[in-house]
Description:
The chain is of the alpha+beta class. It has helices at about 10-25, 65-75, 80-90, 115-130, 190-200, 215-220, 230-235, 250-255, 275-285, 290-295, 310-320; strands spanning about 35, 45, 55-65, 100-110, 135-140, 150-160, 175-180, 210, 215, 240-245, 265, 300-305, 325-335, 340. The protein is about 35% helix and about 25% strand.
Amino acid sequence: MTSYAAAGVDIEAGDRAVELMKSKVARSRRPEVVDDASGFAGLFDVSALLKFRRPLLATSTDGVGTKVMLASKLGKHDTIGIDLVGMVVDDLVVCGAEPLFMTDYIACGKVVPERIAEIVGGVAEGCRQAGCALVGGETAEHPGAMGPDEYDLAGAGTGVVEADELLGPDRVRAGDVVVAMASSGVHSNGYSLVRHIIKTAGLGLESQIPEFGRTLGEELLEPTRIYSLDCLALTAHVPVRAYAHITGGGLTANLARSLPGSVDAVLDRSSWTVPPVFTVLGEAGKVPQAELDKTFNLGVGMAAIVPAEDADKALELLATRGVPSWVLGEIVPGTGEARYR
């Protein structure tokens, strides 16, 4: 007999996954979340925005790239959702927006309820860390298009910022300084190169790496640091000019996006020590420095541009929040480029 299940789609497994993830999603709830009895939509009470003079909604969407392939290969699915949230909300906060809520989408070859619940549990934990709510999502089973153990995930987030508090290049001035916030590792960019290095250098994910104090796989699956609440706290503490989320393209390319055409950001390589994961990968893959620069964050996950006189206050605030930070460089007259000395 022909049926949906015979075609490879298990509706009951999907329902079971929803039941398993409910308690985890509840941990990300905000007071503005309104229950939708039908479950077809996520509801958010925007009357909270009435306190704004001119609220601007900000939105961002992203995925986690081929990092999911390592998570799948290692059978560890509870942190990849944190990566997803980090990639979305830390784009939102660059303009000064407070992340309000997110939705997620998971496509897989076969719904394994426990695995889906772990993935969504990670998304919910990321939302908790970011201070936003996970208000809905979708899991789609694609037999034939994806293998039984394959999956991919994406998400979209919405935030809000007061119009006259919008951060960006127009606020940046010569004489400002660049404050770096440490990354937790590779984050979620450059994993196609990472996988190529692993393959060509014959590295094993289960190999113990002395420089890491753990296995290569454990190091590479370290979840993305989420900066949104730290950035919002910093903006409330000092007059931040702009932020730059350091993702694909590396430090200089992303920082240049937050500069006007009248200045340059001049960065000092000696101001920090590049984490071992990048030097190990670079040496194993014989990757030129220029390629490392434009592919990885090299230890800087977020950068803030602040007035020079407020740099110490910024560093002190970030230290109290457990975010390693340092003065990375300065803003000088130029043509809108970020470069090393």
